[in-house]
């Protein structure tokens, strides 16, 4: 009953005209971003973050969150109609979605993607609402050793789950930790790696870093690798899936919801990972796996549901533990901090109205997206007719403008350019930038908790962390995650498949 | 054997060693009382370990995400123009420097026609100036170009 009462208050806040309009704006901008290739949700949120500084806390959060889950909805449209994913989580939808469209079943693909996204997103929000209060209460018992162990676990998950190789992922995460220590040390007040400059004393800003890596980096890569895009297939009039489509997709949607949410909760469990895993699961459980790749509707329903459920799932660790599981949530964490909110177990105690307003806005946003996406899909597709040659310089202009507007500072623009070049190089050589951003955000928290734990409990023995039950279990899990790929390799050598 | 992995491995190894020296100079303290160099030293050890691992166990040579038709010159122009833009933004002001940046990007990077480039650059720089400077009150540098009173 207490949850329902709090949710009711959240709805009352979100349905206030100004907030309602911002949810609407957020999901529309998110859908547009999802539809347009070349500008993902991370760069867009980084770009719009300075514009939300003047807003109150709740409006800015529900606006930015709307962009995030809106982008997940919009991403499927280009995958299905043009065979180009609007954002990373929709890459897998291209395989069967585009084949369905070529067979004249674009309506069914777009429709099931929209309904699947709605169901996955809504079930995800219900789970966030039910789980978060209990997790936050449990997390109140965490001291510095437990927080360090949790962050270390997150670090290993991020390094190993994201990217093509564990060593590459962990190296990116280590680079993120290194960038995170630049600036004046919070504990000792000593300047570290500032090279004597005043600018670096405050540390490297998350916004120039994210806009450079994800915004400029992507644009530079696209400038170099300009390939002709396929033609946009016509949008069919009927987007409602048939009874047969529903029958074939129902199980995929349910599995996608559970799997996506579970992955979203894990650090490093990005929506893109959820959609990939959902596709693999659907292919494995299907009685006709040979249909996958030729236009199987389950190959659209499962991944599209999973990426939206993962989007919702990511809010659990963010709002209850203060741990972002992907780069977009890292920026939402920055938005929370800009408004003086410390995310973590105390969020529900100190700022319950923030938590419940975000939850309510997600319910409303998901309904808006379903209503908007089906009838207005034709309008969104028209955006794809804007030549990328025109769009790309405009995106560069907005990124540079956003970097400058943050502090009215030219060094911020230089920093964005520097990270843009780094982002391009990472993309060029197939390194994943997400672990870098996440470790950059988690690093300072990790250092503070490690120092606190070592000073407060002053044993000097690192094994001390294993003697406390919660931190011991978390560190054990972290070691398991680190060793898992090697154990798998060893298993394959010992028990080779015939 | 991936040459990229090996190269990155060596870079991480050397970077880690340099970081370890820097961390040591910052004073790592002890495990009972960590100093400001303690955490950088831990990161350095991680980097050295990962560098050695990548060098000794590189992934299989995979196709890097290499373009089908490389446009190096376009990328170089884009980078130089953005760098130049950042250098002159304060002196020339937002309107003039943004107009110049967009014209260069559209005409020489994207190979659009002169008329498309100029019109798009004029409209985009003027509209963004009005939106950000007038509506959102972002103090974009005015430079030498005279702006209407109140802007």
Give an account of the 3D structure.
The complex is a heterodimer of chains A (about 500) and B (about 150). Chain A has about 500 residues and is mainly alpha-helical. Chain A has 21 helices and 2 strands. Chain A has one domain (about 1-495). Chain A has a two-stranded antiparallel sheet with strand order 1-2. Chain A starts with a helix and ends with a helix. Chain B has 2 domains: about 5-55; about 70-135, no CATH class. Chain B contains 5 helices and no strands. Chain B has helices at about 5-25, 40-55, 70-90, 95-110, 115-135. In chain B, α1 (about 5-25) runs antiparallel to α2 (about 40-55) and α4 runs antiparallel to α5 (about 115-135). The chains are: A mainly alpha (about 500), B mainly alpha (about 150). Chains A and B meet through α8, α9, α17, α18 and α19 of A and α1, α2, α3, α4 and α5 of B.
Itemize the secondary structure elements and their pairings.
The complex is a heterodimer of chains A (498) and B (151).
Chain A (H helix, E strand, L loop, with lengths): L1 H13 L2 H19 L5 H8 L8 H26 L10 H10 L3 H34 L4 H18 L4 H16 L1 E2 L6 E2 L13 H19 L18 H23 L5 H15 L12 H16 L1 H7 L5 H12 L8 H4 L1 H31 L5 H20 L2 H19 L5 H24 L6 H4 L1 H26 L4
Antiparallel strand pairs in A: 1-2
Chain B lengths: L2 H23 L12 H19 L15 H21 L1 H16 L4 H22 L16
């Amino acid at each position: 009953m207490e949850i329902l009462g709090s949710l009711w208050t959240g709805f009352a806040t979100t349905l206030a005209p100004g907030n309602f309009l911002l949810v609407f704006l957020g999901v529309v901008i998110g859908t547009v971003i999802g539809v347009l290739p070349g500008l993902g949700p991370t760069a867009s949120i980084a770009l719009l973050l300075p514009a939300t500084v003047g807003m109150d806390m709740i409006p800015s959060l529900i606006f930015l969150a709307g962009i995030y889950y809106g982008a997940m909805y919009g991403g499927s449209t280009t995958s299905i109609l043009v065979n180009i994913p609007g954002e990373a989580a929709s890459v897998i939808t291209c395989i069967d979605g585009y084949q369905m469209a070529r067979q004249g079943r674009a309506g069914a693909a777009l429709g099931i993607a929209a309904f699947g996204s709605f169901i996955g997103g809504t079930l995800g929000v219900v789970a966030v609402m039910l789980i978060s209060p209990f997790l936050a209460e449990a997390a109140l018992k965490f001291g510095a050793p437990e927080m360090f162990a949790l962050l270390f676990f997150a670090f290993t998950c991020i390094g190993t789950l994201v990217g093509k190789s564990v060593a590459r992922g962990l190296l990116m995460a280590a680079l993120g930790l290194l960038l995170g220590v630049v600036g004046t040390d919070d504990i000792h007040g000593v300047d570290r790696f500032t090279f004597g400059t005043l600018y670096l004393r405050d540390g490297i800003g998350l916004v120039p870093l994210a806009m450079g890596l994800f915004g400029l980096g992507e644009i530079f890569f696209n400038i170099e690798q300009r390939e002709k895009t396929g033609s946009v297939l016509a949008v069919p009039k009927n987007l409602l899936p048939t009874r047969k489509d529903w029958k074939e997709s129902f199980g995929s949607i349910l599995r996608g919801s559970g799997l996506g949410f579970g992955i979203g909760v894990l650090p490093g469990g990005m929506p893109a990972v959820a959609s990939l895993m959902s596709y693999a699961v659907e292919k494995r459980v299907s009685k006709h796996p040979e249909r996958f790749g030729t236009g199987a509707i389950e190959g659209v329903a499962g991944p599209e549901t999973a990426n939206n459920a993962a989007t919702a799932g990511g809010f659990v660790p963010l709002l209850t533990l203060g741990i972002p599981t992907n780069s977009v949530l890292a920026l939402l964490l920055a938005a929370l901090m800009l408004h003086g909110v410390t995310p973590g177990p105390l969020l529900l105690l100190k700022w319950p109205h923030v938590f419940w307003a975000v939850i309510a806005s997600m319910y409303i946003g998901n309904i808006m997206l379903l209503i908007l996406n089906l009838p207005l899909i034709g309008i969104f597709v028209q955006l794809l007719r804007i030549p990328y040659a025109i769009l790309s310089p405009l995106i560069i202009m907005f990124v540079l403008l956003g970097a400058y507007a943050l502090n009215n500072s030219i060094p911020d623009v230089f920093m964005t350019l520097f990270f843009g070049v780094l982002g391009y190089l990472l993309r060029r050589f197939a390194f994943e930038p997400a672990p870098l951003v996440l470790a950059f955000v988690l690093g300072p928290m990790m250092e503070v908790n490690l120092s606190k734990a070592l000073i407060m409990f002053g044993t000097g023995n690192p094994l001390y962390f294993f003697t406390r039950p919660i931190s011991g279990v978390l560190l054990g899990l972290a070691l398991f995650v680190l060793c898992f790929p090697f154990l798998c390799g060893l298993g394959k050598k010992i028990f080779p498949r015939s | 054997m991936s040459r990229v992995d090996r190269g990155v491995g060596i870079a991480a190894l050397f970077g880690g060693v340099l970081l370890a020296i820097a961390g040591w100079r910052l004073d790592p303290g002890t495990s009972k009382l960590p100093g400001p160099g303690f955490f950088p030293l831990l990161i350095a050890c991680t980097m050295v370990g990962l560098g050695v691992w990548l060098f000794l166990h590189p992934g299989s040579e995979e196709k890097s995400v290499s373009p089908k038709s490389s446009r190096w010159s376009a990328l170089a122009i884009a980078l130089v123009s953005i760098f130049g833009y950042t250098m002159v933004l304060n002196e020339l002001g937002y309107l003039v420097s943004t107009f110049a940046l967009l014209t260069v990007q559209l005409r020489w990077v994207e190979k659009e026609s002169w008329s498309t480039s100029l019109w798009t650059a004029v409209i985009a720089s003027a509209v963004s100036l009005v939106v950000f400077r007038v509506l959102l009150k972002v103090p974009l540098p005015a430079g030498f170009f005279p702006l209407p009173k109140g802007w």
